[in-house]
Amino acid sequence: MKNKLISLTIIMLLSSSIFxxxxxxxxxxxxxAGVSKGETFDYNYSLIWxxxxxxxxxxxxxxxxxxxxxxxxxxxxxxxxxxxxxxxxLFNNGTQTVQSGSINIESGTVSVPYGFLIIGANLxxxxxVYPTGGHQVITDTVTSSFAGVQRVTNVIxxxxxxxxxxxxxxxxxxxxxxxxxxxxxxxxxxxIVSTETLTSTNSNDWGVASxxxxxxxxxxxxxxxxxxxxxxxxxxxxxxxxPSAST
Length: 247
Known about the structure:
By secondary structure, this protein is an alpha+beta fold. The chain is about 25% helix and about 40% strand. The protein has two domains: about 1-25 and about 215-240; about 30-205. A nine-stranded antiparallel beta sheet has the order 4-3-2-1-9-8-7-6-5. A hairpin with a 4-residue loop joins strand 7 and strand 8. Helix 1 packs antiparallel against helix 4. The radius of gyration is 26 Å and the shape is elongated. The two termini are about 30 Å apart.
């Protein structure tokens, strides 16, 4: 009876450990918000339009956008993958517009401008950004200096003959540090280039250190500990069953 109880205990320990590891791995496939209610994220805004045609003038909508001095996200609520935000655009003349909406970091659905600048926290290279929406992945994960601080950043980048996009995210926060979008067009024999950039101005207020242990690594550690426990239990069990030497 005692031997059966020990065997049952070993099986239960191993099963529990495997369950915890599997749960951790499954959790790792989901996205988690790195932002919190009440936080604000500020960006300088720039839109540069150039043309090789000396007589060309920029479109009116681009002129209006270029009057933007600052962009701000204020987090009003966080519930699972749903992030509620106020998007504020401040203009050079002192006026501002406010638009309330949401960002779903699981599906990629956004209802505010530039909502793609906030994604899940602690994503890894080649990981899908939105598990239930689109095919965008983290292009690279690098350590770089931003505003005088070394940060682990997740990079999303793409480029073709007409467009180029680069976004650097603070990995632990899931918030963009900078954004560049460039469009290259032709008009007759002339070339037109529009370059839009946003750069964080308060990242040192909200920047956090990246987690040193990811969920998959924790799962591996759990399995290793479980195996050690089982091996030790088996050794002890066998020692107890070994008959004493006759005298």
